[in-house]
Amino acid sequence: MAAGTIRYWAAAKAAAGTAEEPYTAATLAEALDAVRERHPGELSRVLQRCSFLIDGNPVGTRGHETVRLAEGGTVEVLPPFAGG
C-alpha cells in the first residue's frame, strides 16, 4: 500500500466537496473504489467521465487495476473541460 494525495479538478472538485484528500492504496482502482465509498452519488458519476494523471503521467486506456501508485504520489482527477 502507498499513501499519497488525490487532487480533484472542476466538476470532480465540486462533487467531492474538497480540492484534495489523502489516499492509501496499491493501485488506481483501489484508490478510486475508496473515493466512491467516501463520496457516493454525484462524484461516482463524474468519475466515469474523468481522465487521470499519476504523478504527471496520463493513465490513458490502461486498466486502473494495473496502474500502481507510489508512496507520496499524486493522482489528478480531470473531468472533461470545455473551452480552451
Automatic annotation (TrEMBL):
This is MoaD/ThiS family protein. Coiled coil: none annotated. It comes from the Bacteria. It holds the Pfam family ThiS.
